[in-house]
Amino acid sequence: MDGEDELKLLGTWASPWAARVKIALHLKGLSYEFVEQDLDNKSDLLLTSNPVHKKVPVLIHNGKPICESVVILEYIDEAYGSTGPSLLPTDPYERAIARFWVDYIDQKLVIPWKVAFTADGEEEKTEGIKQILAVVQTLEGALKECSKGKPFFGGDSVGYVDIALGGLLAFLQGTEELCGTKPFDIANTPLLLAWVERFIVLDAAKVALPDVTKLVEFAKTKRVEMALSIKK
Ligand SMILES: N[C@@H](CCC(=O)N[C@@H](CS)C(=O)NCC(=O)O)C(=O)O
């Protein structure tokens, strides 16, 4: 990409999906304008850019909107193939495996997390927690398989799966306070625990991830809204 290249990211400071995009843009070394959105009073720009879901993040590249965090991550990697590191593996099989795990994270981790956080009864909460812990255990195996003994899912450097999980990290770190359980521990997920320590000190993570204490307080005010979003 050259010449008059303009990137605008519509997001909110607390959005884990927007954090994914910030991480990817930072890793690629791309400059962009971040436009904070008020989701209680959605802007015309957001509504016209993402008329289907009306959600953040939206990346607007030279006036053209791209929606959904994983679609945006792949777009950034493809549109800026020659800029910065590759986010997805080049080998088609490894690429498919990375896509599989990102889909797994979105399909299997997020809903139980919301259930555990918003549950009214103990039984529902316990079920949510049980599912979070089972999913995290599976991701421990995925990290072992994808990293092949190297520091990240992407190997020596942060890749697509690292970004997808890493964007959620501030919420995951707040899990103990919000859901009553620690997702990672030394006995069951030693690899993921070490991965978290490595990930949070990256410049891209420091730039993109919100402060955990501030996020936890904010999430508590959004409990009812989040409960409704599961039923949608
Ligand atoms: N699957 C979407 C999820 C995006 C999402 O849920 N965004 C939330 C903010 S964290 C949102 O915009 N919510 C507004 C609404 O639901 O009206 C992605 O990966 O981008």
UniProtKB/TrEMBL annotation:
Pfam family, one: GST_N
Domain of life according to the entry: Eukaryota
Enzyme Commission number(s): 2.5.1.18
Catalytic activity: RX + glutathione = an S-substituted glutathione + a halide anion + H(+)
Keyword ATP-binding: no
EC class name: transferase
InterPro entries: Glutathione-S-Trfase_C-like, Glutathione-S-Trfase_C_sf, Glutathione_S-Trfase, Glutathione_S-Trfase_N, GST_C, GST_C_Tau, Omega/Tau-like, Thioredoxin-like_sf
Domain GST C-terminal: from-to ranges: 91-223
GO biological process: glutathione metabolic process
Key word Transferase present: yes
One Gene Ontology term, aspect cellular component: cytoplasm
GST N-terminal domain location: 5-84
Gene Ontology molecular function: glutathione transferase activity
Keyword annotations of the record: Transferase
Family from the record: Belongs to the GST superfamily. Tau family.
PANTHER family: GLUTATHIONE S-TRANSFERASE U26, GLUTATHIONE S-TRANSFERASE, GST, SUPERFAMILY, GST DOMAIN CONTAINING
Protein's name according to its UniProt entry: glutathione transferase
Protein species of origin: Triticum turgidum subsp. durum (Durum wheat)
